[in-house]
Specification:
Elements: E1 3-6, H1 11-17, E2 22-25, H2 35-42, E3 49-52, H3 59-62, H4 66-87, E4 91-96, H5 119-132, E5 138-143, E6 146-147, H6 154-164, E7 167-171, E8 175-176, E9 179-180, H7 181-197, E10 203-206, E11 213-214, H8 215-226, E12 231-235, H9 255-261, H10 268-284
Parallel strand pairs: 1-2, 1-3, 3-4, 4-5, 5-10, 6-9, 7-12
Antiparallel strand pairs: 8-11
Bound molecules: NADPH dihydro-nicotinamide-adenine-dinucleotide phosphate and dtdp-4-keto-L-rhamnose (TDO).
NADPH dihydro-nicotinamide-adenine-dinucleotide phosphate (NDP) binds at residues 7-13, 26-27, 30-33, 53-55, 57, 72, 94, 96, 124, 143-146, 151, 181.
Length: 285
Amino acid sequence: MTVLVLGRSGQVARELAALPGMRCMGREAMDLRDPQACAAALRDIPCTAVINAAAWTAVDKAESEEAEAHLLNAEAPGVMARAAAELGLPFVQISTDYVFDGAGTEPHMPDDPVAPPNAYGRTKLAGEEAVAGAGGAHAILRTSWVFSAHGANFPRTMLRLGRERDRLTIVADQIGGPTFAGDIARACAAIAAQLQTRPEDSGIYHYSGAPDVSWAEFAREIFAQADISCAVEDIPTSAYPTPAVRPLNSRLDCSATKRIFGLDRPDWKAGLATMLQQIAEEESR
Ligand SMILES: NC(=O)C1=CN([C@@H]2O[C@H](COP(=O)(O)OP(=O)(O)OC[C@H]3O[C@@H](n4cnc5c(N)ncnc54)[C@H](OP(=O)(O)O)[C@@H]3O)[C@@H](O)[C@H]2O)C=CC1
Ligand SMILES: Cc1cn([C@H]2C[C@H](O)[C@@H](COP(=O)(O)OP(=O)(O)O[C@H]3O[C@@H](C)C(=O)[C@@H](O)[C@H]3O)O2)c(=O)[nH]c1=O
């Protein structure tokens, strides 16, 4: 039977669309700015679970448009999760490392205190709370630093800038796990399937690529794998001011995800190689 995916052209949504048994609904079919209409539509779609891969992900823009971001990231997931609960469908909500303020150097546990440092993180945390409060089987899967061959992400920015310049300054004191969207899609599908028979596994889980690195180290590996000659100079966060504050420590402890769902942290360097191969194949067509 079909799993309903909210989102169609986003990084994770596209990877979900490539898996068997997924029915992906982009905003032209389900515009989450009207959550009640989407919930009504959900009631007419036969499916076994719902995966929410739709969100407002423009971190800096959320600072000035928090109400819009809140509608998509908090209100809509809450309404959809309540509709799913009424229909007896498990609901998988993807969330973010940006719910943590990033203090310390230890990986965050799923039940560690949250304190979002920016508007995007606040809206995603409100979404977590709404989904958890909806009353149905659910998983809140926090991931980080998502990349894929499509859409807006750090590796694609680096590929563009690295070909234009011979040197880039990149922050080296924010540490986290880059995560390939294809790995997140497979994890969401596995979790949705397990929740159908084991609703007692509901809860908050972490899933991020290994090993943890800084953005600067991530950039170096992107240039190495893509064979781009661009020097990376380490800089502190203070030397790269942005509208939204980003957490310094984005490390996520993923051991509960391994224990409950049997999912290992994915190797992001392998994901990066897959992404680069996909880009090369698409460019050669
Ligand atoms: N990007 C990242 O680095 C990280 C992302 N996450 C989380 O992972 C999830 C997936 O992110 P990612 O794949 O990067 O997102 P993208 O920004 O690539 O895609 C956003 C998705 O949201 C959908 N969407 C946007 N507005 C609406 C709307 N009004 N109605 C319906 N759908 C809408 C888009 O729909 P359409 O298909 O129609 O374009 C698209 O599928 C999100 O929950 C995000 O918060 C967590 C950690 C890191
Ligand atoms: C382009 C560029 C960025 N940077 C820094 C800024 C920032 O600290 C870091 C990453 O920048 P980005 O804007 O690409 O990343 P950002 O949009 O903050 O990525 C986040 O997106 C949301 C959706 C999430 O949920 C997070 O997990 C995370 O992936 O790189 C440099 O230091 N030098 C540069 O030349």
